[in-house]
Amino acid sequence: MFGGKVFKILNLPMTRMNYRLLHQKVGADGVVEALKWSYRYGTHNVPLVGLTIGKLIDLAAENHPDDEAFIDVTANKRLTFAELRKEADKFAAGLLELGLRRGDRIGVWGPNSLEWIIAQYGTARAGIIQVNVNPAYQTDELEYCLKKVGCKAVLSAVNFKGTDYYKMLEELSPELSTSLPGALQSKRIPSLKSVIMMSEKKCPGTMSFNELMKCAGNDKFKQVLEMQDHLQFDDPINIQYTSGTTGSPKAATLSHHNVVNNSYFVGLRNEYHKHHSRICMPVPLYHCFGMVLGSLCALTHGSAVILPSPGFDAEACLQAIQWEKCTSFYGTPTMFIDILNHPNFDQYDKGTLHTGIMAGAPCPIEVAKKVATKMNMPDFMIAYGQTETSPVTFMTKMTDPIEHRTESIGHIMPYVEAKIVDDENRVLPIGSKGELCTRGTTSMLYYWGDQKKTNETFRGGWLHSGDLAVLSPEGRCYIVGRKKDVIIRGGENIYPTEIEQFLFEHDGIEDVQVIGIPDKRMGEEVCACIRVKSKQTVTAQQIKDFCKGKISHYKIPKYVVVVKEFPMTVTGKIQKYRLVDQMVNELNLKGQI
Fold this sequence. Notes:
By secondary structure, the chain is an alpha/beta fold. The chain has 20 helices and 32 strands. The strands form 7 sheets. A 9-stranded mixed β-sheet has the order 5-4-16-15-17-18-19-20-21, sandwiched between helices. Strands 12-11-8-6-7-13-14-24 form an 8-stranded mixed β-sheet, with helices on both faces. Helix 3 runs antiparallel to helix 4 and helix 4 crosses helix 9. The longest helix has 18 residues. The N terminus is likely disordered.
């Protein structure tokens, strides 16, 4: 942003002090004041990590071979760092034996497990691109995911939460049941040749996980070892599909450099480098939150990562925290709410906890206060980002007051730039509301096979988030809504986040989501969907009375509906577009569309 021409015009030598003066000014009282424009950059005295994931595995296995890396509580299995490298190399060699080569894609489809972890690191050792597949995908979604990036193989669970994964694979490729393992000829997915199941159960046409781990010859293991000096940290290594809450999922392609450095600097902000950490991680591995902020912290900081259950289970989390003496806990606000409200919450010891990460949605301050006190996590932090930024670009700090940790998304991450722009892409003054844009080491390589979407999202090197935000003079960032998540009622712009934060102050509300409902006269009306706390009763009129005189009249919900649950993605994000459809039907408002 500030090049040599600026210094020439000002007739200043290129010194550290003068560079600082371009970004800050000193007031009459000698206090350094921020400049007036909504632009921030993240500095740090620690350099970036220029290593592949495979090289990090070598370092971890050599420096602390016998330390625990991963614990799968449900399966009662543990992996040390030395064992992780050994298992990852078996998986990598097995893929090479099947005919996969550097740059090929393999889909990984299933809930949290050690098999998923081994696949994550085995693919990295082989230079094969892992494609994270949402465990909730149904047949059509699975087909789209595998075909979009041309997966040559898929590693799949047999079943999960009543879903028969093999049956869906067979539906997509009827040829599977009569084919030899590794020789699939699928008409619907021509690229797909091999199906590996995370089970010893025999499924026709497939290879079991253990069979893959044992199938490679010595020459393939030698190839894996030799490959570590040839793979580059800028190589693509992971494809993650956007959540799909709106439109068709896009295949965000991430490099070793993206995910390794994001994990490393998130861990530094969590102070994992100052003490050994044991991370209880119920968030799904298929998502950036679990795979990068969780799993990779084992390598970037020598942490132990505990998987409490295949899918989120509140009591399983409480058990894992106590049994494994966890020091850190990860979750979405919804997960924290469910844990705090679990009937057996007080029966479990949470004394070893002190920090963690909450992400995926705004955190109500009352929930944050309980997390800090009842869950014994005074140092927990809020993280913000996107799949396309691998994922974190902003994060609060342990020293931030609890109010700043809920009202804001914190401070910019190291080696990331951010700006707030208007509709004409002009940087706005500090305190002005506009679209948040970022660029830096976090930014993905591209959307696989979709240059048009890549160009729409990245303009001039800047990723346009679609989030409306405000930067404070102190450098904190506040998300005030989405460009596509604004309720426009009679010409007034209403931001759901503001109303949600307010309604959380009501004693009877456990969780709330505010959406726009179509209205022929006003364009949209405000609808509040609430989950009521156990053993309490709340009426629509009580909520409206609670709002009167406290928020502007046009922000008071016209509709208040009590719901048992919200439609969600596997990562715990509310699917508001589905909630809108649900409310239109429930309120019989189809005539307003």
